Structures are given as structure tokens and as C-alpha cells.
Amino acid sequence: MFDKKFVTILSIIVGVIVVAGIAVVLMTQKSSQPEPVVNQPVGDNSNDSEVITSDIDTSDWQTYRNEELGLEFSYPEGWVLNESNNQIVVSSPVYRQNLPEGGGIFKIEQVEVNLEQFIDDYNNSDILPGGQALARIVQDEKYFLDGQESRKLTGTTAIGIDQNFILFTHKGQTFIVQYHEFDSLHKNILRTIDLL
Fold it and tell me: What is the CATH number that goes with domain 39-195?
């Protein structure tokens, strides 16, 4: 059938292809250390960080300020703000076309959990009777909120629309900002947050 020399050469060629394929996969994988995401310049390190700017004019936006919580942010003119039970919810009064869920809500909530507890609670929040989780935190990265190191999380949902969260501590209290990364207005509200 095949002579021994042919089988040996074919084996070497297949081995080289497999090793080359593994090398390509390993070289194209991203580092396990994610780069920080930045919403505003961070002190003297601002030259090392990406600063995200906006094309949306926020000059006519309304301002929410809460001295007790120590935060302030702006939100679009005409949007509705509701404040209750340690949470502030901002939303458009009308369904916004071409956005999943019409854009959804932007929420800041004072919570009594740490990062690990929040992730565990989220991962166990929507589980089918067979044990399959429909909601999972799939990304956790460093984020700077008004110059303060925070954590940015991305979570999947049962309906297939990712949710984003910023978890930060300020004045001894823990807060979670819930928003949608796909919504440019949500991202611009996030960029206006000032910690007082």
C-alpha cells in the first residue's frame, strides 16, 4: 500500500499543520488582563487612559443632584426621573424606536452587596427548573467613574439583550449603575456622573 517513507512524511506535515494552528490560536487570544475603560480623565494618569468623548449635545439636559448620596448627573430634557427606596431611575417617557426595549431604563441604586455577591445574585436570578442559567455575568473589567476605580460588568439576559452595570463605592456606600451599552444616551448620562 503506502510505503513507510510516505507515511512518515505525511505524519510530519500533519504535525506541523497542527502545531502551527495551535500557535496561531494562542497568539490571537487576548490577554486575560482587560484594559481599563474610562469615562473621564483620571488624575495624572489621563495620558495613559482612553477618554471617551460624545457627539451628543448635553447643554440642555436636566441635572439631578443628591448631597446625601454624594452624586450628581445630567439626563435628557423631557426624560422622567423617579427616586425611591435607595434608587434613582431615569427613562424616556416614550418608546424609542430602533432600540431594544425602547432603550430601557438608566438606574443608580444604593445596595448592600459587594462585587462577588452581586455577581452571584445575578447569575442565580433567572434559572430554569432544570438548572440552566438564563442570566450570567459574562464580563468584568476595570472602569473609572469620575476618576474613581470601579468595576464594569456585562450580563446576559433571558431575552438576549445584554445589561451593563458599574459597581462603585462612594462615601462608604456601594452603588450599582444599570444601563445599556448599546444606548448612546445611557452612555452619555453615565459620562456626566460626578461624585461629590
Answer: 3.40.1000.10
